[in-house]
Design brief:
253 residues, mainly alpha, DNA polymerase, domain 1, two-stranded parallel sheet
């Protein structure tokens, strides 16, 4: 047997004993540094006997109803947060076109078919100094037309028209008359009623038109100016497709 083999056999025989001795020494060292528990008093045993074993501590416990309520609260908070984010998001703002006081059309604003020609011709009558035809730049307002005929005879007469409305080529402006009342022959030689010169009684002669609709037609004309097409009758509240088709063959613009 070689020396190397003899040393290995001896180490294997002594290894368990060395490990046991080392473990015992480490335990003694640890006990020197570990504080001893406080001594129990007779009163502690009496208290433990009355209280019984300690109850298990539940860190977090909810029943099914509580879970549903918690989920509803979380979902509600998420919806509110989403709505606040949606309302506060950046939006693109489109600025309104500038209004030109001189009556010239603002860039990007269409003032009707006559705008392309650059001029409009209107007929101003009623309580004005010099009634008659006037020619003005496209985009001019009713105020410009009244100024062109020398102005109104009284300040009260100006309340019958919308001074800020853009002029339409070929229209007639009545200053000082009741809203919707226009001077002129409402029925032509063909028996067709002119929508832009008809009075309330003229409108009531049409099928399906009573006093209420006649008043609405006059109000629409006073607000929007002349009718440019028969189809614009459909913009008046109460005139549906059925009434419009009955009126169409009997009117003109």
């Amino acid at each position: 047997m070689s020396l190397r083999t003899a040393v290995a056999d001896r180490f294997q025989k002594q290894a368990p004993a060395v490990a046991t001795a080392t473990s015992a020494r480490l335990q003694r060292i640890a006990m020197q540094w570990t504080p001893s528990p406080p001594a129990r008093l007779p009163a502690d045993d009496f208290t433990d006997a009355i209280a019984g074993p300690p109850a298990p501590v539940r860190v977090f416990h909810l029943d099914r109803r509580a879970w549903r309520g918690l989920i509803a609260i979380v979902l509600g908070a998420a919806l509110i947060a989403g709505w606040l984010w949606w309302q506060g998001r950046p939006r693109e703002v489109t600025l309104a076109p500038a209004v030109v006081a001189s009556g010239a059309p603002s860039p990007g604003i269409s003032v009707g078919p006559s705008a392309a020609g650059g001029q409009v011709v209107v007929h101003v009558i009623g309580a004005v100094v010099e009634p008659g035809l006037v020619q003005l730049p496209a985009g001019s307002r009713i105020a410009d037309a009244i100024t062109a005929v020398g102005g109104a005879k009284t300040a009260k007469a100006l309340g019958s028209v919308n001074l800020a409305r853009v002029l339409v080529d070929g229209e007639q402006i009545v200053v000082g008359a009741a809203a919707g009342v226009v001077i002129g022959a409402p029925i032509d030689a063909n028996g067709l009623l002119n929508l832009n010169t008809a009075t309330a009684s003229d409108f009531e002669s049409l099928p399906g038109i009573g006093p209420v609709l006649a008043a609405r037609l006059l109000q629409w004309r006073a607000t929007n100016g002349v009718f440019r097409s028969i189809d614009e009758l459909g913009e008046v509240s109460g005139i549906g497709p059925s009434i419009l088709e009955q009126i169409r063959p009997r009117v003109r613009v």
